[in-house]
Every structure is written in structure tokens, then in C-alpha cells.
Amino acid sequence: MSITARAAKKYLDILQEDGKPGWGIRFEERMAGCSGFEYVLDFSEKAEENDEVFVSNGIEIHVEKNMVPRLLGSEIDYVDGLQGAGFKISNPNVRSSCGCGSSHNY
Predict the structure, then answer these.
(1) Where exactly are the structural domains of the chain?
(2) Element (DSSP H or E) covering residue 47
(3) Measuring CA to CA, which residue among 67, 58, 63, 51 is closest to residue 13?
(4) Which of 40, 54, 75, 97 has a C-alpha 20 to 30 A away from that of 24?
């Protein structure tokens, strides 16, 4: 589990703006969309008891232990292009995703 330097900088900027310096990022997924799952990124003040903690580019990434096998190897990046700006997840475990790219399956 990793976060690129560009995404880490953007996340740190957001934390500063929101008055949450030092917080980690919660990385999970939920059932949604036409392909089955969608990623969820959220603020995480501290890891919970059932979390695995990964550290990348100075950011703690909190992931529920039961989700680790599906999310292991994922990279969180930040892109700013013609289709808009936002965090983008690359996950080598995904077998297919929907046409719009908002959901995926294993």
C-alpha cells in the first residue's frame, strides 16, 4: 500500500486547510456501482484496533485487516487533468472495472 509523493503533498495540504495536521488516510472499499466495489478515502485521526497501518511518503494509511488482501499493492496518486482533479487508485488485484471507471471487481 503506497501513496505517491504528489498525492501525499496534496493530502497534507488538505489536512492543513481542514485543521487536521498529522491525521492519516483511511483507505477502504464498499459495495457499489455496476462492477461491485468502489474505493473510499477518508480522514483518519488514528488507526482502529482492527486496522493494518502502512506508512508511505510520511502518510499513515489505515486499512481494515479484512480488506488488506484485496487492496495490497494499491497505489494512491493525485491527478490533475482534462477530466478533472482527484485521487486515483491503481490496484493490481482488480480484474475488471465498469466503463465509467467508478467501480471494479476481483
Answers:
(1) 2-105
(2) none
(3) 58
(4) 97
Q: What is the pTM of this model?
A: 0.85
Span 22-57, pLDDT tens digits: 999 999 988 666 557 788 999 999 999 999 999 999
What are 74's three cell numbers? 494499491
DSSP state of 40: E
Banded pLDDT at 93 (limits 50, 70, 90):
confident
Contact between 69 and 1 (Cβ < 8 Å): no
Please state, in angstroms and rounded to a whole number, the distance separating the CA atoms of residues 85 and 7. Answer: 11
Question: Which set of grid coordinates corresponds to residue 19?
Answer: 485543521
pLDDT of residue 36: 72
Hey, what CATH topology would domain 2-105 get?
Answer: Hypothetical Protein Aq_1857; Chain: A; (2.60.300)
